[in-house]
Amino acid sequence: MKRTGLALLAAVIAVGTGFLLGRSYYAPAPDDDHRTMRQFIVYLTLRRVDDPIIVLGDSNAEASTLPRSACGHPIINAGLSGASLASELPGWLAPALVNKPAFAIIVGLGTNDALTSTAVAKETFQRSYDSQLRQLSKLTTRLFVLDIPPIEARGRFSPDMQQRVTATIRDYRSVLPELAAGNQASFLPLSEMAAPFTIDGVHLNTDGYRAWDAAIMQGVAQACGR
Q1: C-alpha atoms less than 13 angstroms from C-alpha of 146 in its C-beta half-sphere
Q2: 48-72 per-residue burial string, b: 16 or more CB within 10 A, e: under 16
Q3: Radius of gyration of the chain (CA)
Q4: What pTM does this model have?
């Protein structure tokens, strides 16, 4: 009986995943089983809720522990490890919502764009982020842009690497308030993080999440009219 149940579950997941792949419900990520299944789970979650507050971002978003709801609206963690502007997340989120509006969307991207061996140029970053905010603004009337967390010289990140990536992140952060204003969105700054605020140079530790969570919940409070 157990084998039959497991086989049935595997078949349902396979069919569901295949359906998502065929309908382009997720950003392309060849050979990335985690990305595929993560987006499949978020897709299923969005199908059974109305008027959600969606937190869209990378691994720092995915690993966060957010409240389940606020002011009567479910908070959906749609963080995807490795996500960047190249992931084109709005193209996945729009059909996942199935023509239902989101109560609010909080988007935080940019770290992975800065971490590539050849970082995305500031002008390219600005154009791409602007394009994606324009798409997201069609899905909600309450759009928020989260600041980009800094990185540290910890783990595999040497001081030289930290300096290089920090300079890129500084460039990216400088255009975020303007991008938010140009898309009728609110900018959510991060308060200063006291070192150490990461576990490996990039991913936030408990202290780092205090600042990150505070910024996210500021957006949630604004969306709820508080």
Answers
A1: 29
A2: ebeebbbbbbbbbbbebebeeebee
A3: 18
A4: 0.85
Q: For residue 137, which of 108, 94, 96 has the smallest C-alpha distance?
A: 94
Terminus-to-terminus CA distance in the chain, angstroms?
52
* 123 residue type, one letter: E
Tell which residue, 43, 149, 34, has the closest CA to residue 89: 43
Domains in the chain (CATH in brackets) are: 2-223 (3.40.50.1110)
- pLDDT digit string, tens, across residues 159-207: 999 999 999 999 999 999 999 999 999 999 999 999 999 999 999 999 9
* Secondary structure letter of residue 154 according to DSSP: -
CA atoms within 13 A on the CB side of 72: 3
Query: CA–CA separation, 206 vs 144, rounded Å?
Result: 23
Cα–Cα distance measured from residue 199 to residue 47, given in angstroms and rounded to the nearest whole number: 34
In degrees and rounded to multiples of 5, residue 23 shows phi and psi of -95, 5
Characterize 6-42 residue by residue with b for buried, 16 or more Cβ atoms within 10 angstroms of its Cβ, and e for exposed.
Answer: eeeeeeeeeebbeebeeeebbbebeebeebbebbbeb
Whole-angstrom distance, CA of residue 31 vs CA of residue 51: 32
Q: Residues 98-142: pLDDT tens digits?
A: 889 999 999 999 999 999 988 899 999 999 999 999 999 999 999
